[in-house]
Amino acid sequence: MNWLELSDEALLAQCRFERFRVSGPGGQHRNKTDSAVRLTHEPSGVVGFASERRSQHQNRLVALKRVRRNIAIEVRSDVDLEMYHPPRTLQRIVPRSVQTEIPGKDRVGPKHREFWTGAGPLLDLFSAVNGSTSDCASQIGCSSNQLTKLFASEPHLWAAANAIREQHRLSLLRR
């Protein structure tokens, strides 16, 4: 099952919710309420945590975004390279200069809420080609340089790509 494609409500329904107090900066109101939130995605065990806001509701939304991001980074799916065609969610995050079936107005960047829905399949493919930027780039129809720039567009994606390369004993990507 592709958890990244679930709506926020459906993904939240699969999470265990915990609230608590945390210490640290934030003024006199921070410790008066249990506003920190930890969401644990039960099927995968992935965790998202947020405590930077005073509002528990806002922290829950931030924690859910982090659960989605962490699922994309930590959970890998198998990829059949012989029959591979980039899914629409992945095509939406590739650079605008790459020719895909997705019009420019439907592309999403790292700050868009659906970015990680495409980044997960990208990391699945990158892992399937053993961290080879040239092999991954050719599968999605872009250059190695464009792929490296895509990885560099989001710090967590960059770290995940380099972790995959490190697993396969390849040198780390350089900016």
Offer a quick outline of the entry.
The chain is 42% helix and 9% strand.
Structural features, described:
This protein is mostly helical. It has helices at 8-13, 56-74, 88-91, 115-128, 133-140, 144-152, 155-167; strands spanning 15-20, 36-41, 47-50. Helices cover 42% and strands 9% of the residues. Strand 2 and strand 3 (47-50) form a beta hairpin. The model has no long low-confidence stretch (mean pLDDT 89). It is elongated, with a radius of gyration of 18 Å.
What would the average pLDDT be, to the nearest integer?
Answer: 89
Give the class from helix and strand content and strand pairing. Answer: mainly alpha
Q: State which percent range the strand residues make up.
A: 5-15%
Low-confidence runs:
none
Looking at this protein, list some descriptive labels:
42% helix; 3 strands; 7 helices; mainly alpha; 175 residues
SSE topology sketch:
Elements lengths: L7 H6 L1 E6 L15 E6 L5 E4 L5 H19 L13 H4 L23 H14 L4 H8 L3 H9 L2 H13 L8
Antiparallel strand pairs: 1-2, 2-3
Helix pairs in contact: 2-4, 4-7, 5-6, 6-7
